[in-house]
Amino acid sequence: MMIRLKNIEKVYRTATVETLAINGINLDIAKGEFLSIMGPSGCGKSTLLNIMGLLDEPSKGDIKIDDQDIRSFSDKKLAHFRNEKLGFIFQSYHLINDLQVLDNVELPLLYRDSSAKERKALATEALEKVGLSNRLKHFPTQLSGGQRQRVAIARAIVGRPQIILADEPTGNLDSAMGNEIMNILINLNKNEGTTIVMVTHDESMAQKTHRLVRLFDGSQVQ
Amino acid sequence: MYKHLFKLIWNKRRQNFLFLSEILISFLVVFAVFSYLTYYYKNYIKPLGFDYNRVWSVSYNGDRLSKNADSLGIFYTNLNKALQAMPEIEAVSFSSSNYPYSSSFISTGLTQGGKKFNNISDFNVGNDYQKVWSVKLVDGRWFTPEDLISKNKGIVINETFSKELFGTAKAAGKLIGDFDDKNKFKIIGVVNDFKANGDFLPANNVMFSQLDTTNLKWASTLLIKVRETAGASFESKLYKFMATTMRSAVEIQHVDEMRNAKNKETIIPMLLFIIVAGFLIINVALGLFGVLWYNINKRKGEIGLRRAIGASGVSVSTQMVLESLILATISVLIGCFFAVQFPLLNVFDIASSVYLIAILLSVLFIYTLVIACSLYPGRQAAAIHPAVALHED
């Protein structure tokens, strides 16, 4: 199993309020699976994705990625694990506007032992895969929303991760751009065998994936 | 990683301009302070060249004394004998008004091998001047009464001046021309360098010449080395004796107090400068701290992203500190370009080593300041939770 979540709970506490964001989720995601997560706003989709991406810790429950129990990992080891195994795509792209496209895509490789030449070759290759080989020296602000998301996808795949976690990747795009991005993700899943977990509000996009999980008030309803 | 940081800094050069300017101005201010302090410290650690303890100066007005040089000579000889007969007095010497810490300057010029040497402090002194100040000879000898009748007037110079004139060769016994090179002086001795203007100011080149009957009328000061037993009652007795003998008002000053007053003339402006510079540095430190804090809050999304794609907390913190250090290095390099002009152009005629030490200290200070100001914001950046940072952006 690529991702195994067992009885995951996430509680946010303030001085006066306790909010249960995720309530006892059990989920197994197989290697090479393309899974989508849907649900109304505030149902805990992004929280669940963050927990899968090791960006957030569950309050309760176990999580295994690629059969490794990550609870005992130090901050450094966790960072290394994220770098090697996971790729992230965000709704708002999260590109660094002060860096050119090529440099943005190279970012994950900076935290690995790779030479500048190797980084450049891998980043160029990733940008070719998303059809942006002619935009290497552009800054993100010079690109359209769809192009920015393609840069974000290139950044997510440049390190050849086994898992891609996409948080509403088409949420900021029109339907044509959204379909374009979706096709890139489907091809990645099909051709490279990358496991993809995608949070979406768009039913039509979700229908294109292998499996759909629905959440409501932090609980899995489908 | 360094190439990446350089790219990031270069692409954000407009945003970084204020930070760079702040560091550059701080560097220049700190350089000025350190140049000032290094200069004074280097002077301070040099030996004084004399002992001021238990030396009193007695200033008098000799207008009512005889105008006849021979009579005046006899008068001063008798006065000298009378003073030396006092048990509280160890040594007595007449002097021109420009004795150490007196704020009176008499300078002259000398000529050696056609080359003029100007701004030489000219001390007209009595035979026991060396005893009064415990001046140490490094070559030759001090004046004797017989020197008054020698063909070439004898002079004693200081060690540094001797090296400027003759290099490593011995100066004692050599002749040197006066300002116009019409008369020749004979150097009879060389003494240690003589810091007559205070502990923090450099020792000028000096020339001691013997008071003789022709210039005795210019003598207006008696320098007295007293014994440890000499107290207020002796001072009172001395005052009465001198006032009666000189038939004028006299002023007795303790040279150690004059030294303290003279040193304060340097220390007080120095302290004021340090305080003003200190406030400026505190402001700069707060400014840096604020800028870095603001940057981190502004870059929360980027920090969250870096954490998500593989940066550990330590590497985020290191990146923040490194970025500050790279910016500081750019400012320091520009600052060094300006600072290095001071020794190259010999500004203020101060030794190059003073400026070079000041540059080194300023560089160290700026890096310490930048590291100190960026460590805490860096730690705060490392503590940012990636999920929260990505969500906020």
UniProtKB/TrEMBL annotation, chain A:
GO terms for MF: ATP binding; ATP hydrolysis activity; transmembrane transporter activity
Alphabetical keyword list: ATP-binding, Nucleotide-binding, Translocase, Transport
Domain (ABC transporter) ranges: 3-221
InterPro entries hit by this protein: AAA+_ATPase (IPR003593), ABC_transporter-like_ATP-bd (IPR003439), ABC_transporter-like_CS (IPR017871), MacB-like_ATP-bd (IPR017911), P-loop_NTPase (IPR027417)
SUPFAM superfamilies for this protein: P-loop containing nucleoside triphosphate hydrolases
Cellular-component GO terms for this entry: membrane protein complex
Tree of life domain: Bacteria
PROSITE patterns assigned: ABC_TRANSPORTER_1, ABC_TRANSPORTER_2
Family that this chain belongs to: Belongs to the ABC transporter superfamily. Macrolide exporter (TC 3.A.1.122) family.
Protein name: Putative ABC transport system ATP-binding protein
Automatic annotation (TrEMBL), chain B:
Main location as per UniProt: membrane
Subcellular location: Cell membrane
Any single GO CC term annotated in Swiss-Prot or TrEMBL for this entry: plasma membrane
Domain (MacB-like periplasmic core) ranges: 23-230
Transmembrane segments: 20-41, 267-296, 325-348, 354-376
Record's bilayer topology term: Multi-pass membrane protein
Protein name per its UniProtKB record: Putative ABC transport system permease protein
Taxonomic lineage: Bacteria, Pseudomonadati, Bacteroidota, Sphingobacteriia, Sphingobacteriales
